[in-house]
Every structure is written in C-alpha cells, then in structure tokens.
Specification:
heterodimer; A: 401 residues; alpha/beta; B: alpha/beta; 8% strand; globular; binds iron/sulfur cluster
Chain lengths: 401, 350
C-alpha cells in the first residue's frame, strides 16, 4: 500500500537533512549571493533585457499555441539541411530512437540536458552496454557522486570545492587539491581523450528556430561545442516546447535566457542546423568534414502536449530554464534540488506532475511550495507558479477524497 | 470545465492503478477536519476565539464588519499542534479524515488540553489582545464597527491553500450567510489571508458576495485620509517593515503602510534589502507541513530585517508575526516584532 502520507514523511526527512547539511548551506549561500550580484550587474549593463523578456513571453505564448505546427516546420527544415528529425510522443519512444541510433558498446559524450535527466538517458545507455560521460563539469561531478542535479543551470551547486577535491582524488587516483583551477584542469585532461574517442555526442538545445531548423545551445565551458562537433554523430534531444517561429525569435529567447541565468554574455553560443559539410573539392557537397557527418534531432513530447492543451498549465511551457526562480525561492535556498524530482523548485513541481514523475511524485513538492510568489517576480516570462500549484492541490485533493 | 474534469479523471485513473491510498499527511487532515467540524483550523470554541470582545459590547449589525477570522487568536496554538502531530506516526490508523483537535485525545492519546496549557499564557494574551487592540484603534479613529462574536467562523483560507474546494464552498456559504446577517457593506479583515479569499475567491464561489473588503492596514490608511490629523500613534525610533507575501504580491498593497509611517512623528523608516514585491517569505505557509524548514526560513528573514538595525519590525499578518517572533525568541535576538495593530495601539495607549 502506498500512501502520500508515507511519501511525505520520507521526503520531509530528506528536506530536513538537506537544510541541516552545512555543505549544502555553504555552497548555496555562495551561489545565491553571486547569482544576485551577477544578475543585477548583467541587467544594469544590458538594461534592454527587461523589455526583451516581455517580448520573449509573447513569443513563447504564441509558439506554445501552435506548437505542433512549429515542430513540423522545424523537422522539415532540419531534414532539408540533411539532418534527421524525429518526434517521440513518450519517453519510451525517445529512448528507443536513441538506442536504435547508438546501439551498444559505444562511447558517448554528453552535454548538459534537463530533458536527458527527464528521460534518464545516461542510465539507459549505460544499461545498454555503452560508456557514457557527462562533460559538463558539474554533471561529471554528479556522475561520479551518483547524484542527481541540484540546479538546472548549476547542477552541482550544493557541493563545495573541498568535497569536489575528495571525489576527484579518488576517481583520478592522484591527489587533487581543493583548488578550483586544479579541479577543472584534472577534468579537462581526462575529458579531452573521451571527446576524440567518442562515437556519439549527445546534447539538448535551449531553443530551436522553426524556419531554418537551427538549434541554439548556450554554454560556458566549451564542452557542448566539443560534444556536438567532435564525435562523428551528434544526437540532440529537444522538448517540443523549445521551438519558436524564427531565427530572430530564437536569438531573443537565448539572450533573455542567459541574462536571467546570470550571464552578461555566455562563453559560447552554438548554432547547429545540420551535419558538417564541405563543398571545397570540385564544389561537391560532402557531409562529415571536421564535424559530425550525421545530425539526429529527436523532438520529445512526453506530456508537453497535455500541458499545452490546458489553459492554465500551458504557461508552464514558457519556462526558459534560466534557473532564476530557484535562487530566489526560500525553500530552494535551504534544500537545493531536494525540493524537486527531475525538475526542481516550484516550476519543477508542475513539470514533475505533467512530464517527469507524475502527480504522485509531484505531490510532496506541490505541498512544499510556499506559494509566496517570489519566483514570479524573478521569472523573465512571469510564470505564475503559485496559481498552478493551487490548481494542482485542488486536483490532488479531488483525487484523495 | 469539462476538459478540467476529464483531466482530473485521467489523472485519477493513472493514480488509482498504482495506489490504494491517496491521503494527505495527517496535519493537513486535522486542519481540514477541524475547519469542517468546528469552523476553525484548531477546533477552538467560539468562546475562546471571541473572548477578547466579551466586555466590549460590539453590535452584531452595522455598516462595517470587523472580521478577525480567529486568526490572531489561533496562531499561538499552531506550533503546539504541529509539534505534537509530527511526533505521531504519520501512517497511524488513528488519523481518520474527520479527526478534530478535540478528538485527538481519544484517537491517539494526545490531550489537546496539554497543547492549550503548553502555550504560555503571555503568548495567548498577546495574540488575543491584537484583535482587541484592532477594535480599539478603529473605534478611536471614529469608526463604528460590528463583530460576529462567538459565531464568527474562520475564512477557510487554508481549505483553499490545501486544495479542498468543495469543503471551502460549503464553509464559505455558512460564513457568507452570517456576514450577510450583519448588514455590513464593508469588511475589515485583520489578516491578509482572509482578505485574499474574500476579495479573490469568495466572489467566484458564492453568489452575491459583493463587499468592500479591506485589510486593517488599508482601513487605517483610509481613516487617516478621511480625517487628517487623527493618527494617534507615537513612537520615537527606527522602524522596518516586513511585507507579507500575500499583502505585497497577491493583494498588491505596499505603499499604504509606508504612508502611514510618514505621518507618524518620530518614526524613521528603514527599508530592508528585500522589500515590497521583493519581500522574502517568513516561512509561515510551510509551518503545518514542514515546521523545521519554516523555522529556518523565518530565522533567515529575521536576519534580513535585523540587518536594518531597526528598533522594531512591523508586520501585518498573524502568521508573519508568529513566525518572526518565534524566530526572535528561539534565536534570542534583541529586536522587537510587532503587528501594525499593536504598534498603533501602543502609541494610542502612551
Ligand atoms: S520558471 Fe521562469 S525563472 Fe524559473 S527557470 Fe523557468 S523561466 Fe527561469
């Protein structure tokens, strides 16, 4: 017999443990402080961002209204660019598509992707007998710690440098000091070889332009660039809510995303619309020059259409995943991603209910939200999380009694 | 509506397939059960709730209804109840749907009187007095008020919060009937939570619920304006404001309190870093389900408020007052935390 009361009890114990963990508290305090300072500075330097965010909300609103059509157009554009595009209705379908392309016994390097978390793609590919490496530094660390991400932009936000040193010392089999530069150096050295040996590069995308099929990937480390450019085949997994009508819309979404994710400008913005090609010899177009010779883009629905069909919850699809709301959430500030399932924080509770985890896994999160509304103030697209939380509570109560 | 029902049914099928018991934690059950059975979240009697007004002879009918919803009177008991319930096995069969505060003794062997006794009488007095002081301040400023007395029911805000809409509808009908009986056209709510449900929810679920709903702070500000010079508070020192989430973000009320302070001689208002719509939550809404976490959130908010180096933190919500004051006591912090009602009354009494 499963009961929500029991689920709550277990979850509450974890939440309390997280809020008592000095490492989590230290790391979060540092992160929240920098986030606030960086964002304030970035918005001051680029004050047009606030107005642009309003424009982006309108773009997302109309894009979600015609999501199916935009996905179809994006697929056509990608195919026209000599890439392959697919639509997976469920998580299972998405995993099968990836497995069909990758097979077994391969090396896969993976960039950060929340959709990857939703699908538990790493675990799945490992089970299929592949070697899979997270290349985002934070995610690599979590892979070694067998933990799930604790923030959507900064997944290992809860681990301070001292603990990172311990993990790396054990994994690399040599002393790595608690010095951030040394820690980064060790991973860089290890990962280089993996990029060049890998058969497949796996990534997500922040936004996709339907008109030209361009995937936009925002990053800072350069790992996504290597993942998507070095291995001979690139597979991108994209939620269907990520598609906007035009390339210019996509750029606006990207700029607002990185600014609210606390960057004046990110280290790299990758735009990928097809496999690598050259026409340099006798003007004959040949695929697979320096970069991948194949690009596979898998659009994933997995509950998103259901959200889009609901007049209230469709707003949840506007989320850009900038992560700003989490830094400003009083519960998240104490518990990190323990206030979450695959998706985190208040907005994560909504995504958990519809997309990754179902209402039962979402219920404790839904009741954890204070409905204080601070996230709405921070959110570039003003997603009204408290109203959606109230509605989900109504649905849970309607089921329970 | 139809689509919504289909969604709910679909989700229900998904869940019922895997789960035979889909109950919420017992603390939520108790609160719900008490509201249904006794009319308020802790099952306190009307006498206990309305005791503050017993000798004031407030009329039952009038133009302006002072609505306490029992909230200030109830808050000191919440910590005791939550404390006790979190110690009891959450899966215990004793926690049935309709279990009320007063039934606990039979079901799980916990004596509710102990909780009542466990709350320091000073605390009890203080919160009971807030309602009394509210009436006194309004009357002193020339307002005629009526009050529902022992019949007054809680607004049902927690039923709304926890998602029990059918229960809220039934409860709201009873309360709306009582309010109608007063003949009032204006309702002054001491708590922003009741103001929120009266303003935003009741008109959606009750036919004919058309009142001018004001929070105490708004009422105070209106009185200041209609009769300038009648502001009676006096205080010398630094004051900082803790904006309640409901008040600042849900109801959009942030400036009235600041305008009031501008009119009080001797007050220098210092804003905390996070103020108005950027206010941070006191953790109060999480208290029933996640008391430990709520306590930590309150302590953090108190730190933010204390960094203003003000002499007094002024709040205007019973849950904020209780949460921040608990954090102050437990952290042995040397700052005073007062509700705007207490603050105004203090000036008046001096
Ligand atoms: S809900 Fe808003 S603030 Fe939070 S991650 Fe999404 S876009 Fe960013």
């Amino acid at each position: 017999m499963r009961s929500l009361a029991r689920a709550f009890q277990k979850y509450t114990t974890e939440l309390n443990r997280a809020s008592n963990d000095p490492n989590i508290q230290l790391a979060l305090a540092r992160a929240v402080k920098s986030y606030r300072e960086n964002t304030a500075a970035a918005l001051k330097r680029f004050p047009h961002t606030v107005g642009l965010a309003e424009e982006v909300r309108a773009i997302k609103q109309s894009a979600v209204e015609r999501m199916d059509d935009l996905v179809a157009r994006a697929r056509e554009a990608i195919e026209a660019n000599h890439g392959r595009a697919y639509l997976a209705r469920s998580a299972e379908e998405a995993l099968n598509l990836v497995a069909d392309i990758i097979g077994t016994g391969k090396i896969v390097v993976k960039g950060k992707s929340i959709l990857g978390e939703e699908l538990e793609i790493r675990e799945y590919l490992l089970e299929k007998g592949n070697e899979v490496w997270e290349t985002d530094l934070g995610e690599f660390l979590l892979q070694l710690r067998h933990e799930r991400p604790m923030h959507i932009v900064s997944p290992s936000i809860h681990v301070p440098r001292e603990q990172v040193a311990e993990v790396f010392t054990e994994f690399f089999g040599r002393e790595i000091p608690p010095d951030i530069a040394a820690e980064v150096g060790a991973v860089r050295e290890f990962m280089r070889e993996k990029y060049f040996k890998a058969h497949f590069g796996l990534s997500g995308a922040n936004v996709v332009a339907a008109d030209c099929g361009a995937l936009v990937i925002i990053e800072n480390e350069g790992n996504a660039r290597l993942c998507t450019a070095v291995p001979p085949v690139h597979i991108a997994l994209v939620g269907i809510e990520k598609v906007v009508p035009t390339f210019q819309d996509a750029m606006k979404v990207a700029e607002v995303t990185w600014r609210y994710a606390n960057y004046p400008v990110p280290g790299y913005v990758n735009i990928i619309s097809g496999p690598s090609k050259t026409g340099d010899i006798e003007k004959v177009t040949t695929y697979g020059a320096h970069g991948p010779r194949e690009l596979h883009v898998i659009f994933v629905d997995n509950g998103r259409s259901e959200m889009a069909a609901d007049p209230l919850f469709k707003h949840g699809l506007y989320c850009l995943r900038c992560g700003g709301c989490m830094y400003e959430c009083p519960v998240f500030q104490l518990t990190a991603g323990y206030f979450g399932y695959r998706y985190l924080g208040g907005i994560g509770a909504i995504w958990t209910a519809f997309v990754a985890g179902g209402l039962e896994n979402a219920a404790p999160l839904i009741y954890t939200c204070l409905r204080c509304g601070r996230c709405v103030e921070r959110c570039p697209v003003s997603i009204d999380v408290p109203s959606m939380i109230a509605e989900l509570r109504r649905r849970i109560a309607a089921l329970a009694y | 509506m139809k689509r919504y029902l289909i969604e709910v049914k679909k989700m229900a099928l998904k869940l019922r397939g895997e789960s035979s018991q889909y109950r919420l934690p017992p603390t939520v059950e108790v609160v719900r059960g008490n509201i249904i059975k006794y009319g308020n979240p802790l099952g306190l009697s009307g006498k206990e709730i309305a005791g503050w007004a017993s000798d004031l002879n407030l009329p039952r009918e009038g133009e302006v209804l002072l609505y306490t919803g029992g909230e200030y009177q109830l808050v000191p008991y919440i910590d005791g109840l939550v404390d006790m319930l979190t110690k009891v096995d959450q899966g215990s069969v004793g926690f049935s749907l309709m279990m009320g505060f007063r039934n606990l003794v039979d079901r799980v062997g916990v004596n509710p009187e102990k909780i009542v006794a466990g709350v320091l009488s000073g605390q009890r007095e203080r919160y009971r007095n807030v309602s009394r002081q509210a009436a006194a301040v309004l009357q002193r400023m020339g307002l005629q008020i009526c009050y529902l007395g022992e019949e007054e029911l809680y607004s049902g805000a927690l039923l709304y919060e926890y998602g029990f809409m059918d229960d809220l509808r039934r409860h709201a009908r009873k309360l709306a009937g009582l309010i109608k009986g007063t003949g009032a056209r204006t309702i002054i709510c001491l708590s922003p939570h009741s103001a929120e449900v009266f303003k935003l929810i009741y008109p959606r679920i009750i036919e004919d619920f058309h009142y001018e709903v004001k929070t105490f702070t708004e009422a105070l500000w209106d009185l200041c304006n209609s009769a300038p010079g009648r502001l009676v508070a006096s205080f010398n020192g630094r004051v900082t404001v803790h904006d309640s989430c409901r008040m600042a973000r849900e109801l959009g009320i942030t400036e009235e309190i600041r305008e009031i302070f501008k009119r009080i001689k001797g007050v220098s208002l210092i804003e905390p870093e996070f103020n108005r719509r950027w206010t941070t939550c006191c953790g109060g809404p999480g208290k029933v389900l996640f008391p430990e976490l709520a306590g930590k959130i309150a302590a953090r908010r108190l730190d933010e408020l204390m960094s203003t180096e003000a002499d007094v933190v002024v709040t205007f919500c019973p849950y904020c007052l209780a949460a921040l004051d608990k954090a102050r006591r437990e952290g042995q912090r040397s700052i005073e935390i007062q509700d705007i009602i207490e603050f105004m009354y203090r000036g008046m009494a001096e």
